[in-house]
Structure formats: structure tokens, C-alpha cells
Amino acid sequence: MVCLMDRDPWKLSQSGRKKQDYGPRVNFRKQKLKVAGFQGLPSFSQEVVRRMGLCPGLEGFQPVEQCNLDYSPERGSAIDPHLDDAWLWGERLVSLNLLSPTVMSMSREAPGTLLLSSAPPTSPKDSMDSVITPGRSVLCRDVEVAIPVPRCSLLVLTGAARHQWTHAIHRRHITARRVCATFRELSAEFQPGGRQQDLGHELLQISCSFQGRPV
């Protein structure tokens, strides 16, 4: 899949990344988008999208945007903590991690505290050997959750992980070339019954043609 991506040019992006975008041009600040130039998702993603829909929790997933990011330790690639837009993009963010493993770091800038406790035992033996320790409260802003992301794995952000916890990739967690393909679905505003359902229908029709080139 990466060999097929490499047939098209990569554009330099922020923080040492390169990117390829397959989707409408969007001004998130003004909440405006342009369909012109969008030809759909790439042909090599058609089977990937089909198989995604077979995964529990991804039933009915219809992406209208695919963003490929190329990370390299030589370029010091990283991505700062952020929340993805919720005006255009929907509930589920799906990322396919290719070439090398990494770690996604989740954090939450919010008042109050979180109660931390030991991880539950994973086997009966661990349960017998473990010592139950009381939880402890820590400030939300002092907590960072490190999520291992293996090579060729699929990561789905939804619910609180999508809307309340920022996600990031630190430079120290890029040890070899890493390519990530992130797929985004439409928000309720662009779904049937939403205020911009007609535009959403048009975007879906284009994306499902699988004839796209990077915009």
C-alpha cells in the first residue's frame, strides 16, 4: 500500500511530516469547504475501506476523507496534541498504522482530577500474585496515556477519546519511517436529516468512486 502511495508526490507539512490529502478543501475556521478538485479516495483504499466495515464498531463507516502522513526520525517528525474538527468530521476517526510501530499519547486539559488505579490482572496467576493497591487522585493536566500502536494496526478514536482527550505523536516515538492513513466520516450536519445533507451526499458519492488523486 505504501508503494502505491509513493507513486504520488508527498507535500511537506508541519513538524517534519509529509502528507497526501484525498478530500475536499476545508476552511475550518470559517466552516466552508470546496468540492472542486476532490475526485474521491484512492483506488488502492477501496478494499481497506470494505474490510474496515467488517470490524466491530465500524459498521456503516463511510469515509469521505483520507489523509496520509509520512513520519521520519531524520526529519524530527511529530504531531502536537490536538482534537480533530467536529463540524465536518464525524464520530469515528480511523487510522491505519504502516511500516513501523509508534505510541499515541493522549492527554486532557480539563479542571479536576482523575483517579488512577493499577491495571487489572490479565491471567488467574497474575490475580493470585497481585497486590491490590488503592487508587490515587492526580490532576487531569498531569496525566498522559501512552497507547502502543503496532505496525499494521487499526486505531479508532471515538467517544471521549475523540472529543475530550487530545492525541499526539512525540518525536521520541518515531524510530523509523512511519506512514499513517487516517480516514474520516461526515458529522451529523452532513448526514441524512442534517442541515447540509445534500452536500454530504455529494461528498459521499465522490469519495466512493475511488478515483482520487492527492489534492
Net shape: globular
**Count of DSSP strands:** 14
Order of helical and strand elements: HEEEEHEEEEEHEEEHEEH
Distance between the first and last residues' Cα: 19 Å
Give a description of the structure.
There is one protein chain. This protein is an alpha+beta fold and 215 residues long. It contains 5 helices and 14 strands. Helix content is 15%, strand content 33%. The chain has a 6-stranded antiparallel beta sheet. Strands 6-13-8-11 form a 4-stranded antiparallel beta sheet. Strands 3-4 form a two-stranded antiparallel sheet. Strand 1 and strand 2 (18-22) form a beta hairpin. It is globular and about 55 Å long.
Features:
33% strand; 14 strands; 6-stranded antiparallel sheet; alpha+beta
How is the secondary structure organized here?
Elements: H1 2-5, E1 11-12, E2 18-22, E3 25-27, E4 32-34, H2 46-52, E5 65-71, E6 79-82, E7 89-98, E8 102-107, E9 113-116, H3 124-129, E10 136-139, E11 144-149, E12 153-157, H4 160-163, E13 166-169, E14 178-186, H5 197-207
Antiparallel strand pairs: 1-2, 2-5, 3-4, 5-14, 6-13, 7-12, 7-14, 8-11, 8-13, 9-10
What's the quick description here?
With about 220 residues, the protein is α+β, with helices and mostly antiparallel strands.
